[in-house]
Amino acid sequence: MVITHLGKQFFKITQGDLTIGINPSGKDRFGADLAFVSLNHPDYNAVDNLSHGDRAPFVIVSAGDYEVKDIIIKAVQSETEIKGKKYINSIYSFELDGIKICFLGALSNANLSADTKEALGTPDLLFTPIGGGEMLGARDAYKLAVSLEAKIIIPMDYTPETLKVFLKEAGAEKVAPVDKLALKRKDLDGKEADVIVLE
After folding, report:
1. Distance between CA atoms of 67 and 76, rounded to whole angstroms?
2. pLDDT at position 84, please?
3. Which run of H or of E encompasses 167?
4. Rounded CA separation 169/138 (Å)
5. What is the rounded distance in angstroms from the CA atom of residue 126 to the CA atom of residue 154?
6. Could you tell me which of 77, 81, 58, 78 has the C-alpha nearest to residue 68?
7. How far apart are CA 44 and CA 26, in angstroms?
8. Rounded Cα gap, residues 15 and 118, in angstroms
9. Residue ranges with strand state E in 31-174
10. pLDDT digit string, tens, across residues 22-79
């Protein structure tokens, strides 16, 4: 599995011939098989960027249980707020190549219900916003990641300042950003709330 960060909460995940786009924004374009959109906002739903040539993604935008290309996906709802406007945010949980992935999207409240936590399970890989403001702040994001027992945490939607706070909270000040992450199931051995920063 290869994960590339394309800005804000926009990620490209490839596994063999499969390509997934999450919360597309900006100008980066590629053909995807599957797209996850956490909320209906221009910063997260530029799904047109994920169509290229004859390739157009199956797009998931709301809560529910899905199976696409042999991938079981669970999406649960949470509320969030952007510039004073309330939105429904979808949190995605799925497994790819034996790795359990959780994508929190534009989550604003770290106090997830027991039902939501049960639905998400224990992720191997957790994507969390750390930008503060209306979304999770660095400290709350780290506490939530630890409570979910994530093996690897990927911060997103951050500023240099919030990233610095997050890394300090995680005791990971020496972590250097990487341009992409290649990950296999065996790479998770011995990991416990390890932070990986994607540029």
Report:
1. 15
2. 85
3. helix 160-169
4. 8
5. 6
6. 58
7. 9
8. 27
9. 34-36, 58-60, 64-68, 71-82, 85-96, 99-103, 125-129, 152-156
10. 999 989 999 999 999 999 998 999 999 999 989 999 999 999 999 999 999 999 999 8
Distance CA 94, CA 34 (A): 12
Tokens 């939607």 belong to which residue? Answer: 157
Backbone angles phi, psi at 119, to 5 degrees: -65, -35
Q: For residues 127 and 4, is the Cβ–Cβ distance under 8 A? A: no
pLDDT tens by residue, 77-117:
998 988 888 999 999 999 999 999 999 999 999 999 999 99
Least Cα distance to 181 among 160, 164, 163, 156 occurs for 156
Cβ count near 85 (within 10 Å):
9
CATH class of 2-195: alpha beta
Q: Is 83 left (phi over 0), alpha (psi -120 to 50) or beta?
A: left
Between the two ends of the chain, the Cα-to-Cα distance in Å is: 17
C-alpha angle 71-186-192 in degrees, rounded to nearest 5: 95
* Burial environment of residue 124 by CB neighbours within 10 A (0 to 12, 13 to 18, 19 or more): buried
Rg (the chain; Cα; Å): 15
The most distant pair of C-alpha atoms in the chain lies apart, rounded to whole Å, by: 46
What is the predicted pLDDT for the residue at 133?
A: 84
pTM of the model: 0.96
| Per-residue DSSP letter, 55 | B
d(CA 39, CA 9): 11
